Amino acid sequence: MIIKKIFFVIFAVILFVSCSDDDSYDYHYELLPIEEAMVPEEFEYGKIYDISVKYIVPDDCYRNSDILYEYDQNARNVAVISLVIESNDCETIDLEQELTFQVHALQASPYIFRFWQGDDDNGEPIYLIVEVPVINLSEQNANEFKGTHTKM
Protein backbone atom coordinates (compact mmCIF):
# COMPACT_ATOMS: atom_id res chain seq x y z
CA MET A 1 0.00 0.00 0.00
CA ILE A 2 2.85 2.38 0.80
CA ILE A 3 4.41 1.70 -2.59
CA LYS A 4 1.14 2.67 -4.30
CA LYS A 5 1.05 5.95 -2.36
CA ILE A 6 4.67 6.72 -3.24
CA PHE A 7 3.98 5.90 -6.90
CA PHE A 8 0.88 8.15 -6.84
CA VAL A 9 2.84 11.07 -5.33
CA ILE A 10 5.66 10.71 -7.88
CA PHE A 11 3.12 10.48 -10.72
CA ALA A 12 1.26 13.58 -9.46
CA VAL A 13 4.51 15.59 -9.23
CA ILE A 14 5.56 14.58 -12.75
CA LEU A 15 2.11 15.43 -14.10
CA PHE A 16 2.13 18.84 -12.36
CA VAL A 17 5.61 19.73 -13.63
CA SER A 18 4.90 18.59 -17.21
CA CYS A 19 1.69 20.66 -17.38
CA SER A 20 3.19 23.91 -16.12
CA ASP A 21 2.87 27.04 -18.28
CA ASP A 22 6.60 27.74 -18.38
CA ASP A 23 6.89 26.25 -21.87
CA SER A 24 4.05 28.24 -23.41
CA TYR A 25 4.59 30.75 -26.19
CA ASP A 26 2.54 33.39 -27.92
CA TYR A 27 1.48 32.86 -31.50
CA HIS A 28 -0.92 34.11 -34.14
CA TYR A 29 -2.09 32.97 -37.57
CA GLU A 30 -1.09 34.74 -40.75
CA LEU A 31 -1.89 34.34 -44.44
CA LEU A 32 1.04 33.80 -46.79
CA PRO A 33 0.75 34.93 -50.44
CA ILE A 34 0.54 32.20 -53.06
CA GLU A 35 3.31 32.54 -55.64
CA GLU A 36 2.11 29.89 -58.07
CA ALA A 37 -0.82 27.49 -58.51
CA MET A 38 -0.76 24.19 -60.40
CA VAL A 39 -4.31 23.43 -61.55
CA PRO A 40 -5.58 20.92 -64.15
CA GLU A 41 -6.79 22.42 -67.44
CA GLU A 42 -10.18 20.77 -66.96
CA PHE A 43 -12.09 18.61 -64.52
CA GLU A 44 -14.07 15.55 -65.40
CA TYR A 45 -17.31 15.49 -63.41
CA GLY A 46 -17.13 13.11 -60.44
CA LYS A 47 -13.34 12.77 -60.31
CA ILE A 48 -10.95 13.96 -57.61
CA TYR A 49 -8.04 16.25 -58.54
CA ASP A 50 -4.91 17.47 -56.79
CA ILE A 51 -4.20 21.21 -56.80
CA SER A 52 -0.83 22.44 -55.59
CA VAL A 53 0.28 25.91 -54.55
CA LYS A 54 3.74 27.34 -53.94
CA TYR A 55 4.44 29.99 -51.31
CA ILE A 56 7.38 31.53 -49.48
CA VAL A 57 8.03 30.95 -45.76
CA PRO A 58 9.77 34.19 -44.66
CA ASP A 59 11.43 32.94 -41.45
CA ASP A 60 11.66 29.97 -39.11
CA CYS A 61 8.93 31.28 -36.80
CA TYR A 62 6.31 30.24 -39.39
CA ARG A 63 5.09 26.71 -38.61
CA ASN A 64 2.37 24.30 -39.61
CA SER A 65 1.18 25.90 -42.83
CA ASP A 66 -2.11 24.67 -44.25
CA ILE A 67 -4.68 25.54 -46.91
CA LEU A 68 -7.51 27.94 -46.15
CA TYR A 69 -10.33 27.08 -48.60
CA GLU A 70 -13.59 28.98 -48.54
CA TYR A 71 -16.60 29.38 -50.78
CA ASP A 72 -17.50 32.85 -52.04
CA GLN A 73 -20.63 32.52 -54.17
CA ASN A 74 -19.41 30.76 -57.35
CA ALA A 75 -15.71 31.12 -56.53
CA ARG A 76 -13.33 29.28 -54.25
CA ASN A 77 -10.91 31.48 -52.31
CA VAL A 78 -7.65 29.70 -51.57
CA ALA A 79 -4.88 30.94 -49.28
CA VAL A 80 -2.03 29.53 -47.23
CA ILE A 81 -2.43 30.03 -43.49
CA SER A 82 0.47 29.58 -41.11
CA LEU A 83 0.96 29.54 -37.37
CA VAL A 84 3.53 32.21 -36.46
CA ILE A 85 5.41 32.00 -33.18
CA GLU A 86 5.92 35.47 -31.73
CA SER A 87 9.63 35.66 -31.04
CA ASN A 88 12.54 38.05 -31.54
CA ASP A 89 14.83 35.14 -32.43
CA CYS A 90 13.39 34.35 -35.87
CA GLU A 91 15.89 33.56 -38.59
CA THR A 92 15.14 34.67 -42.17
CA ILE A 93 14.96 31.68 -44.52
CA ASP A 94 12.76 32.71 -47.52
CA LEU A 95 12.06 29.06 -48.26
CA GLU A 96 9.73 28.05 -51.09
CA GLN A 97 7.22 25.43 -49.95
CA GLU A 98 4.41 23.57 -51.68
CA LEU A 99 1.04 22.40 -50.38
CA THR A 100 -1.44 20.16 -52.18
CA PHE A 101 -5.17 19.79 -51.61
CA GLN A 102 -7.89 17.84 -53.37
CA VAL A 103 -11.03 18.96 -55.15
CA HIS A 104 -13.88 16.58 -55.95
CA ALA A 105 -15.50 17.86 -59.15
CA LEU A 106 -19.19 17.67 -58.25
CA GLN A 107 -20.61 20.69 -60.06
CA ALA A 108 -21.37 21.03 -63.74
CA SER A 109 -20.42 24.71 -63.98
CA PRO A 110 -16.76 25.78 -64.18
CA TYR A 111 -14.75 26.08 -60.98
CA ILE A 112 -13.35 29.55 -60.34
CA PHE A 113 -10.34 29.52 -58.04
CA ARG A 114 -9.08 32.77 -56.53
CA PHE A 115 -5.59 32.23 -55.11
CA TRP A 116 -4.74 34.97 -52.60
CA GLN A 117 -1.50 36.78 -53.50
CA GLY A 118 -1.57 39.52 -50.89
CA ASP A 119 -3.21 42.94 -50.55
CA ASP A 120 -2.70 46.06 -52.64
CA ASP A 121 -1.82 49.51 -51.24
CA ASN A 122 -5.50 50.10 -50.40
CA GLY A 123 -5.80 46.86 -48.45
CA GLU A 124 -7.83 45.15 -51.19
CA PRO A 125 -7.01 41.49 -51.87
CA ILE A 126 -5.07 40.54 -55.00
CA TYR A 127 -6.00 37.19 -56.53
CA LEU A 128 -4.61 34.90 -59.19
CA ILE A 129 -7.88 33.80 -60.82
CA VAL A 130 -8.04 30.42 -62.59
CA GLU A 131 -11.20 29.04 -64.20
CA VAL A 132 -11.41 25.29 -64.71
CA PRO A 133 -14.16 23.94 -66.99
CA VAL A 134 -15.98 20.74 -66.02
CA ILE A 135 -16.65 18.14 -68.65
CA ASN A 136 -19.09 15.28 -68.30
CA LEU A 137 -17.65 12.40 -70.28
CA SER A 138 -20.73 10.23 -69.90
CA GLU A 139 -22.81 12.84 -71.81
CA GLN A 140 -19.98 13.41 -74.29
CA ASN A 141 -19.65 9.66 -74.94
CA ALA A 142 -23.43 9.33 -75.32
CA ASN A 143 -23.50 12.15 -77.89
CA GLU A 144 -20.61 10.56 -79.81
CA PHE A 145 -22.44 7.23 -79.76
CA LYS A 146 -25.60 8.85 -81.14
CA GLY A 147 -23.64 10.51 -83.94
CA THR A 148 -21.93 7.32 -85.07
CA HIS A 149 -24.88 4.92 -84.88
CA THR A 150 -28.02 5.00 -86.98
CA LYS A 151 -31.43 3.44 -86.42
CA MET A 152 -32.21 0.21 -88.19
TrEMBL record:
Q: Which domain of life is it from?
A: Bacteria
Q: What is this protein called?
A: Lipoprotein
Organism the protein comes from: Lutimonas vermicola
